[in-house]
Amino acid sequence: GSSGHIQKVKEIFVDCDNDTLLLKVEQIGAACHKGYRSCFYRKLENGRLKIMSKKAFNPEEVYKNE
């Protein structure tokens, strides 16, 4: 299944060892399958994970036919 959200690749960078790629994208919709815009929606703070953003969509609705 798919959320229909996409990332349009704008630039691709390669590191000096040729073993890592960095893609700069235009995010359309959310990127995280858990419903957040980014997969990096949590921050480690005082030894605990803190959610730093609101969900962009409800994954139970988007992926309900899987």
From TrEMBL:
Is this entry keyworded Hydrolase?
A: yes
User: InterPro entries this protein is in?
Assistant: PRib_AMP_CycHydrolase_dom (IPR002496), PRib_AMP_CycHydrolase_sf (IPR038019)
GO process terms (BP): L-histidine biosynthetic process
Q: What class of enzyme is it?
A: hydrolase
Enzyme Commission number, as recorded: 3.5.4.19
| Domain of life of the organism encoding this protein | Bacteria
| Membrane-traversing stretches | none
Work out whether the entry's keyword set contains Cell membrane: no
The protein depicted here goes by the name: phosphoribosyl-AMP cyclohydrolase
Q: What organism is this sequence from? A: Desulfofervidus auxilii
